């Protein structure tokens, strides 16, 4: 690490720990201003401490004030991402001008820690957070498969107690899940009666109730039950005007808002965020681990036709006056905190919003919808969370990416951005590290009764969804060699109750479990297998990825060799592999297969 990097980091640490001491009187002079609703061609804005004291200042700059020249620039309220999952990279949003995040599901301790920092005025080093905490879902439903045990709900009678428990934990609002999954990966979902009871219970405590939906039918059911907002739309190639019109009319009648989350819908459609991925000024703020999820997608092949329905519905909602909010669903494949909100605004414009409407969707509208207090606007007395950009975003929404300065609670966070830029640049410098040398014969399966060893990496181990709260199990047994190679028998019992149940055997590529190993010298994975005729999968996970790349295979009754190129594992960084897994699931039942002679080959 260079001396300059150390200096930046030291300044950034000091800023994050005692930011209020650095707040100064600042005048942004002669700047174009978007106040959260309309654009003003030329204004001056005075900041004192953590507040905007004059949003249309016309006097002489106060003595000692920092004067920022706004010529050719636009001052925006700090951006608000209306849908995130804030479980990591809490430092990133500020780098991209996102000063507030509305979180739809995260760990309760993290939510409580950020809330404490906000109360104490000690949260200048990261975005503010307003969270639902634990979402309301059914046992085995969406949200139960992320490695932490969470309370669930099964009946309307439990609704008030469930809501009260969330409020006691500090939830700012209540998020409810209506999600049946997709073909091959069905999920348990709350029924309409329980959803309605949860909404009533939230309203009884003066809390908003928002609903995760993934179908038109569930969208209607949620709105009819009294939901304050829908936090997703859904992909689809058909856009029936009559059906869309009926849903829009219902949303308007009920006074609901909608967060489309195009960033994650595009990921489901296999469409990458090419605008921000291709912007070096933006990607310079992402280290390798942070950049990888943004470059991944859930969909294997791009199919932009799947965005036909959400685009048509979003356009109709906006035209009808239903509040449309910008939310990226950051935390999922195809997204990253902070940077994805800029892409989300561009996607809203592509769907039919004007740039000004997209700016409002990422500032004033979420502040109003989620009752976030005096933020999201440039007005007297409001929080001095601000974003200064070059150019005019009302003419081209891409200009939000031309970031000049970000202020959080009146503090210029340029030191944090500079430290991040320096750290990422340092990471990208050429290194002398070499990929792991593969065994001469490529073989990584050295199975014995005593140990499931490998000449590289940590070795092999059994693994199942049990460590993430699931109920599946696996039993391993080393049997007599076939053609000179020991055979590993894998017996898996896949049990419903986890979102994506699985069990099998895993090769850990790093020196320690879940550490990364550089397997970029390997181009093909080969193995021999036989079994019960069921379909299994090889899954490869790399550091920083939200989801593994997976390729199916069938374990037939006779031995056969399977060869899979590493290029088939989409979204995987071969230089940072954490594990290679051979798994049964997700269909419940008993599975049995035998594995032998696993090799990583350079050709």
From TrEMBL:
GO terms for molecular function: hydrolase activity, acting on carbon-nitrogen (but not peptide) bonds. Keywords: Hydrolase, Signal. The keyword Hydrolase applies. The lineage of its organism: Bacteria, Pseudomonadati, Pseudomonadota, Betaproteobacteria, Burkholderiales. This is Amidohydrolase. The keyword Signal applies. Residues 1-23 form the signal peptide. It holds the Pfam family CIA30. It comes from Massilia eurypsychrophila. It comes from the Bacteria. Residues 459-571 form the NADH:ubiquinone oxidoreductase intermediate-associated protein domain. Residues 74-410 form the Amidohydrolase-related domain.
């Amino acid at each position: 690490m260079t001396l300059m990097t150390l200096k930046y980091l030291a300044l950034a640490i000091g800023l994050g720990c005692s930011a209020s001491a650095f707040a100064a009187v600042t005048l942004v002079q002669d700047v174009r201003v978007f106040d959260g609703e309309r654009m003003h061609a030329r204004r001056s804005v005075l900041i004192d401490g953590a507040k905007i004291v004059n949003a249309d200042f016309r006097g002489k700059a106060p003595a000692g004030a920092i004067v920022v020249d706004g010529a050719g620039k636009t001052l925006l309220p700090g951006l608000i991402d209306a849908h995130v999952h804030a479980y990591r990279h809490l430092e990133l949003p500020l780098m991209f001008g996102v000063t507030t995040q509305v979180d739809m599901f995260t760990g309760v301790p993290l939510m409580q820690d950020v809330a404490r920092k906000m109360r104490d005025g000690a949260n200048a080093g990261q975005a503010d957070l307003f969270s639902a905490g634990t979402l309301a879902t059914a046992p085995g439903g969406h949200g139960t498969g992320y490695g932490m045990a969470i309370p669930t709900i099964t009946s309307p009678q439990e609704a008030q107690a469930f809501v009260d428990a969330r409020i006691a934990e500090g939830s700012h609002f209540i998020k409810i899940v209506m999600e049946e999954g997709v073909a091959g990966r069905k999920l348990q979902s709350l029924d309409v009666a329980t959803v309605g009871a949860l909404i009533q219970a939230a309203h009884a405590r003066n809390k908003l109730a928002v609903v995760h939906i993934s179908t038109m039918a569930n969208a209607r059911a949620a709105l009819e039950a009294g939901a304050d907002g829908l936090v997703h739309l859904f992909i689809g190639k058909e856009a029936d005007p009559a059906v869309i019109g009926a849903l829009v009319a219902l949303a308007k009648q009920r006074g609901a808002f909608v967060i489309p989350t195009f960033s994650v819908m595009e990921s489901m459609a296999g469409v990458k965020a090419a605008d921000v991925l291709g912007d070096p000024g933006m990607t310079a703020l992402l280290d390798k681990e942070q950049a990888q999820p943004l470059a991944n997608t859930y969909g294997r092949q791009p199919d932009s036709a799947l965005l036909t329905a959400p685009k048509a519905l979003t356009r109709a909602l906006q035209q009808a006056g239903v509040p449309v909010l910008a939310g990226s669903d950051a935390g999922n494949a195809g997204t990253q905190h902070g940077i994805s909100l800029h892409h989300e605004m561009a996607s809203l414009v592509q769907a039919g919003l004007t740039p000004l409407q997209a700016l409002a969707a990422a500032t004033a509208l979420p502040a109003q919808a989620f009752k976030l207090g005096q933020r999201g606007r440039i007005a007297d007395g409001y929080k001095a969370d601000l974003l200064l950009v070059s150019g005019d975003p009302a003419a081209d929404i891409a200009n939000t990416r031309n970031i000049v300065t970000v202020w959080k609670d009146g503090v210029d966070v340029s030191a944090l951005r500079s430290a991040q830029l320096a750290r990422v640049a340092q990471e990208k410098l050429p290194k002398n590290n070499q990929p792991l040398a593969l065994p001469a014969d490529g073989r990584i399966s050295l199975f014995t009764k005593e140990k499931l060893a490998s000449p590289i990496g940590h070795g092999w181990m059994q693994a199942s969804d049990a460590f993430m709260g699931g109920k599946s199990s696996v039993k391993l047994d080393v049997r007599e060699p076939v053609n000179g190679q020991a055979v590993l028998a894998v017996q898996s019992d896949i049990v419903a109750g986890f979102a994506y149940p699985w069990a099998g055997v895993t090769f850990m590529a790093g020196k320690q479990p879940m550490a990364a190993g550089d397997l970029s010298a390997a181009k093909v994975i080969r193995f021999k297998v036989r079994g019960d005729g069921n379909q299994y999968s090889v899954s490869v996970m790399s550091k920083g990825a939200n989801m593994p790349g997976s390729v199916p295979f069938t374990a037939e009754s006779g031995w056969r060799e399977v060869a899979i190129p590493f290029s088939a594992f989409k979204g995987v960084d071969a230089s940072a592999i954490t594990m290679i897994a051979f798994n049964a699931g997700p269909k419940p039942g008993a599975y049995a297969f035998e594995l032998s002679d696993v090799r990583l080959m350079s050709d």
